[in-house]
Structures are given as structure tokens and as C-alpha cells.
Amino acid sequence: MGQKINPLGFRLGTTQSHHSFWFAKPNNFSMGLQEDERIRNCIKDYVKRNKRISSGFEGIAHIGIQKRIDLIQVIIYIGFPNLLIEGQTRGVEELQMNVQKEFHSVNRRLNIAITRIDKPYAQPNILAEYIALQLKNRVSFRKAMKKAIELTEQTGTKGIQVQIAGRIDGKEIARVEWIREGRVPLQTICAKIDHCSHTIRTIYGVLGIKIWIFVNQE
Fold first, then answer.
1. What pTM was computed for the model?
2. pLDDT at 66 over 90
3. DSSP letter at 158?
């Protein structure tokens, strides 16, 4: 049987680097990992509560965290100009205070920076949110998948695969549907592949969306 592995973890050290960068003693590792998760969840919740964009999704590609002895540097990579655009420092300061409250760290200060991404639809997280929004609005899943692939092809990627699993269109028997355009060489380690899995709650139940994007080959 074919063994499944996360494409990002499979390529660590070659084409993929860690989103969190810090060192800890083995005893404190789990605490540091939970802290990272809390920071990410707090940022996503804040953006969800305060989003002022008409498209209706967060537009966060990923969140990078770097920890030092006295500083936690958080870099948010966003795809669309929303509440967290570079010019609106008030929004960023408010977010910083919110995250600081979430984990009570006296010794370390928090610094949040925003980085804008040129091609948002080349990011699997943003694409998964787009598909999730379409499915919530009762758009046909096949139409949503094809539209997402069209948007990605415009950014100049070499290949994309989209998979949706669950009670699609409210059918009683759950199934898996997928569609692929171009090449997606998952076995090739030197091929840079972006991957994400996203959960969406619909009135019929939970659907899972997985996206693989073949960016380039080194």
C-alpha cells in the first residue's frame, strides 16, 4: 500500500524550511510548540473577527515565528489588503496587544510584522479558503475546484491538485473527488511543492480540502 507523508515535512532541509525557528531544551519543547499554536490561533481569530474585506476570507498564507531570549518575532504573510495592511499601524498594535494578553510572558516582548505576498492565489491556504467560501455559498464543488485551478494557473505555477472529501453536495455516502492540472511530482524531493489541508463545516457535515501546488524545481 502507498504510504502517505506530508509533502512539507518530506522536503524539510531541501526546498522547504521551518515556519517556526527557535531552540529549546527537550523538556520545554512541547510548551514552545503549544505557545506557537496559541499565537497562530489568536492571530487568525482576531483577523476573522475584524475582517473588513468583501471577499469574506482571511487571506493569511502562513505565519512565521522566530523566538529569541527576550523577543518573539511574528511575521504574517498576507495575500490581500485587509485590516492588517502595512499602513494601518493601529490594527497591528491592537493585534499585538491581543496576542500579548493571550500568553502571559513578562520576560519577552512581542513584535508583529506584516509581509504582503505578490501572488496570493499561488498559496494553497488562500486557495483552500476560497474553495471553502464557494462551498458554503452552495456553489457546485466541481465549479469551485475548476475556478480555483484557473486562478492558480494565472500565477504561473507548473501544476496543481485539489481534493475534496466528505459528504459532497449533501449526498448520504461520503466520497473523495479530486482534479489535477499540470505536473505534481510528489516523489521528487527537489521539486518545491506547497501543500495545505483545510477543514470546512457545512450544514451536511465536515468536508476536508487538500491542495498541492507544484511551484518549481531546483
1. 0.86
2. yes
3. S
